[in-house]
Amino acid sequence: MKKFTFLRISALFLTLLMMQVSCVHEEDPGPLQSEEKNYVLQDFDRLDIGYSFVITVQQSPVFSILVRGDRRNLDDLGVIKVGSTLNIRYTDNRSHEHTTYITITMPALAGASLSGASNTTMSGFKDADNMDIILSGAAIAQLNIESKKSTINLSGASKLTLSGKTDAMDAKISGASELSAYAMNAMVVDADASGAGKISVFASQSLKANASGAGIIYYKGNPLLNATVSGAGMVKSE
User: Fold this and answer.
1) Domains in the chain, please, with CATH?
2) For 106-131, what is each residue's pLDDT tens digit?
3) How far apart are CA 74 and CA 2, in angstroms?
């Protein structure tokens, strides 16, 4: 009987504890405690940024990193350089209710990996030899770039809108992700759409298109076409 009573009390205690923890997680963070920070880091040409940040990246001869948002969020933010890559992420797992805004200027961009529910705008980068862009999770990005070669890899439910020009573009799209690149003037394109991925590209010379699963590839530009289709995939001129 004593053992049964002890177990009941223990179960009740655990239930109350879980309710308390739940209430803490759902607690209203209150009004914005506005703050901004500047970070002095240089000599990076790649970005690796996760979480639901609003990010603006612009070409400039000067390196700068400005972060604006709630003071508590900025206290949890990790901004470091690993090799030539600028890495920005929260260093804890707590909920961050207020939006954090990140503005970065840099002379050149060789690549970017964007994840979580980030929303990114990049512009002004020209004359790059190679540029690789990776989006995952629910990341959204709008890029205006010029490069000799562009490598694009999208997964999850990410969305990328591309404009500018490139000699060659290699795009691999999976999951429910989407690449909108009609405004990206490309000469040679290699496009692969799988899962429920969707690609819209412009190719002036040649297009190698592989659509599998329910993947769809739309194209413009009257290129020489080499298409491979399987499952419910589709390759279509617009």
Assistant:
1) 136-238 (2.160.20.120)
2) 999 999 999 999 999 999 999 899 99
3) 51
Report yes or no: 203 and 188 within 8 Å, Cβ to Cβ. yes
Is the pLDDT score of 74 beyond 90? yes
Q: Are 91 and 78 in contact (CB under 8 A)?
A: yes
Measured in residues, the chain has a length of 238
Closest by CA position to 209, among listed 173, 156, 162: 173
**Phi first, then psi: what are they for 3, rounded to 5°?**
-65, -40
Contact 142, 161 (CB under 8 A): yes
Residues 230-238: contacts with CB under 8 Å, at least 24 apart: 233/193, 233/194, 235/209, 235/211, 238/200
Q: For the chain, give percent helix, strand, coil, nearest 5.
A: 10, 60, 30
Contact between 149 and 130 (Cβ < 8 Å):
yes
Q: How far apart are the first and last CA of the chain?
A: 77
Give the residue among 149, 131, 137, 2 at the shortest CA–CA distance from 57.
131
Contact 190, 172 (CB under 8 A): no
Among candidates 205, 132, 123, 135, which has minimal Cα distance to 164? 123
